[in-house]
TrEMBL record:
PANTHER family: ENOYL-COA HYDRATASE, MITOCHONDRIAL, ENOYL-COA HYDRATASE-RELATED. Keywords: Lyase. This is Enoyl-CoA hydratase/isomerase family protein. The keyword Lyase applies. InterPro entries: ClpP/crotonase-like_dom_sf, Enoyl-CoA_hyd/isom_CS, Enoyl-CoA_hydra/iso, Enoyl-CoA_hydra_C. PROSITE patterns: ENOYL_COA_HYDRATASE (PS00166). Belongs to the enoyl-CoA hydratase/isomerase family. It comes from Lutibacter holmesii. It comes from the Bacteria. The keyword Lyase applies. Transmembrane segments: none annotated.
């Protein structure tokens, strides 16, 4: 498969996957999600690859969310299917990969973008990065696992605040809150991720895959939570607030919710 929106570089046993739609701040449309699935699957099956770094193209955004234009006229059924398919193909898929995935958060990580970073095994951010789940400002809720993974990473209270206010937090705040492990200047971001990857590659890949599975096992009781999220994400598509929220974004104005 030739990729339109994803770049892959291989440096011996390290692979860098870059989401490459810089004009749209690397927003995740269906095509990009499918390409990312194929890229991660291929790299996981490649026994040479010991660590994968995922990042965004350019210096402004990691990923600014799911592609709002693509889903703005979706029905409840289409919205539910989009969330279910996306979680299966990308977000759950990445979380459960045996190959470690580090997210190099190089700018805005919003909505589906933060959800992708949170599906990775851990995160490193550049100092300009901003993170948030702004879905309720569009009349919708996080649909790619964000209600579950954000609570796991920062705790329920902070997750509730971030989701309800739709506020973005700075890289430093994200570090204080446990959402990212390190904050460095943009220029040092990939070098630090590569250094961490180097340490990982010294260790047993078989043991690391088993450790990932074991850590994740503690969160399997959230399977129900993910389903509830998909259901409520889908239901948002039947509301007037969703129509108003997404239309307002596309018309570059503030929404006027009922
Ligand atoms: N979707 C589509 N296009 C986008 C997105 C997006 N999420 N983010 C940015 N873009 C586009 C803009 O429309 C603009 O395109 P154009 O030049 O054609 O008008 C281009 O990228 C550049 O963006 P801006 O001009 O807006 O750049 P600014 O520097 O002014 O602002 C922001 C940067 C603050 C990041 C701003 O772009 C923004 O608020 N983006 C939207 C952020 C957002 O709300 N993300 C959450 C989306 S919802 C979501 O992710 C749901 C997840 C669960 C989904 C499950 C199934 C769909």
């Amino acid at each position: 498969m030739d990729f339109e929106n994803v770049l892959i570089e291989q440096h011996t046993n390290l692979a860098i996957v870059t989401v490459n739609r810089p004009k749209k701040l690397n927003a995740l449309n269906t095509q990009t999600i499918k390409e990312l699935h194929t890229a991660f699957k291929r790299l996981d099956e490649n026994t040479e690859i010991k660590v994968i770094i995922v990042t965004g193209s350019g210096e402004k955004a990691f990923v600014a969310g799911a592609d709002i234009k693509e889903f703005s006229d979706f029905t409840v059924e289409e919205g539910t299917e989009l969330a279910r398919k996306g979680q299966e193909l990308l977000f759950d898929f990445v979380q459960n990969l045996g190959t470690p995935v580090i997210a190099a958060v190089n700018g805005f990580a919003l909505g589906g973008g933060l959800e992708l970073a949170m599906a990775a095994h851990f995160r490193v951010a550049s100092s300009n990065a901003k993170m948030g789940l702004p879905e309720v400002s569009l009349g919708v809720i996080p649909g790619y696992g964000g209600t579950q993974r954000l609570s796991q990473l920062v705790g329920k209270g902070k997750a509730m605040e971030m989701i309800m206010t739709a506020n973005m937090i700075s890289a430093e705040e994200a570090k204080d809150w446990g959402l990212v492990n390190y904050v460095v200047e943009q220029i040092d971001l990939l070098p630090l991720c590569k250094k961490l990857a180097g340490k990982i590659t010294n260790n047993s890949s078989v043991a690391i895959a088993a450790a990932i599975k074991s850590v994740n096992a503690n969160y399997t009781n959230c399977v129900n939570g993910y389903s509830v999220e998909i259901e409520n994400f889908g239901l948002s598509f039947g509301t007037n607030d969703f129509k108003e929220g997404t239309t307002a974004f596309l018309e570059k104005r503030k929404p006027n919710f009922e």
